[in-house]
Amino acid sequence: MQQIEEAEQMRIVEYEDSMIAVAQAAFDKIKGNYAFEKDERYQDIGLYTVKSQAPQRNTDRTYIRAQVDELGRMTLISSYRGSSYIHHDWLKLSVGEVYVDTPESKDRHEFTDLGVYYEWLSFINGSDGGAAAFISANKDADIRYTLYRKAGQEESRPVYRNLKLNKDDRYAIASLYDLSQVLLSLNEHKNLRDDAERHLMFIRSKMKDESTEEGVQEDK
Q: How many separate domains does the chain show?
């Protein structure tokens, strides 16, 4: 049984190695399309972004941007600019009659600069209610979105209506969504390969110990 299990784990390692090679090739093909940011002093995991969406290039508008970390986890960020705070909590995105709602986000960063008010509302590590996937699937469509603020225990009200997600942002987010899927796949196959290798080492260690015990018994 141990020999059968050893052969099975060897098969898994071989399969996962082949899948890692496929995912790595896909990543290598597209990684040049993104800016990579990682400060070794403070960050264990780096971030991939699209340069056109950098906050310093977009201080004059309200828009949605995205980023993906090295593990493939994607974050959507609703960036608001205005003459006062609106304290928005979630978004509704729509194409015609089809729409998707994000969950309420607790991750909001607010600040002012030269009399302009800014809010960054983040939906971290894919907790966006399917908004990124919706944008990716409709990147060639007219996507509209509205910012909502939770007004009471169960009520929400729109605080900024009928914004248009422009083509550059749609394509940037869709591209980062694709990158996220590739990196998630790559890291999943690496984890499965590592699990199989650990299991394989355990089985072989156990087989070696039992073989040693049998040898001792035969000597006696």
A: 1
